Amino acid sequence: MEGLLNLMLHADELISEILAQYGSLTYLILFTIIFIETGLVIVAFFPGDGLLISAGILAATGDLDLSLLLILLSVATILGHTSNYLIGRGLGQRFIERAKLQQQPYLIKAETYYRKYGGMAVVLSRFFPFFRTLVPFVAGIAKMEMVWFTWCNSIGGLLWISAYLLLGYFFGEIPWVKANYGVVLSAMVILLLVALVVGILRGLISKGTNENR
Length: 213
Known about the structure:
By secondary structure, this protein is mainly alpha-helical. The chain has one domain (about 1-180). It has helices at about 1-10, 10-20, 25-40, 50-60, 65-100, 105-125, 130-140, 145-170, 175-180, 180-210. Helix 6 packs parallel to helix 8.
C-alpha cells in the first residue's frame, strides 16, 4: 500500500522517466495505463489522477500534445469502463447464477439503486480512486441499462480526463504547486472524499426526515 501511495504522489517523476525513455510511445503507454486502471477491477489503485496531472504539466511545457492527450485518454477511459461493465455483466452474473444468489436482498437492493442513482454514481465515481474501478463492475452485475451506462460513462470519462489534464496544464507550472505536487494531489483527493461523504450524509438525513413525516 505504501508503494502504491508513493507511486501516486510521485507520478510526475514516473511520467518524466517514461517520456525520456520511450518518447512518442508515451502516448500509447498512458493510454494503456488509463485503460487498465478503469477497465480491470483488480488494479483499482493505479495512479490515474497523478498521471493525468503530470501529463498536463508536460503538455504545458510542450513535451506532450494536449489535444492528443485529451482525445486518446478520453477514449481509453471510456473503453476501460465499458470493459469493466461487461466483465461485471458477464462473469459477475454467471457467478451469481451458478451460486444461486439471484434473490439475495443485497443484489435486489443494488439493482434498485442503480436504476435510481446509477447514472450519478458512474459519473461521480470517476473522481475517486478505487470507486471509479469498482462502480462500473457493480453496474454490470446490477444489470444497469447498457445505453444509459454508456451515456453516463462517456460524460464522466470526458469530465475526469479534461479536469485533471487541464489542471496540470494551467496550474502545474506554478512554482509552489510544482514544489508541493504530492500535497496538492492529496488535498484534492481529500476534498473530493469530504464532498462525497457530505453528500451521502445529506441524502441519508433527508431520507430519514421524509420517512419520519
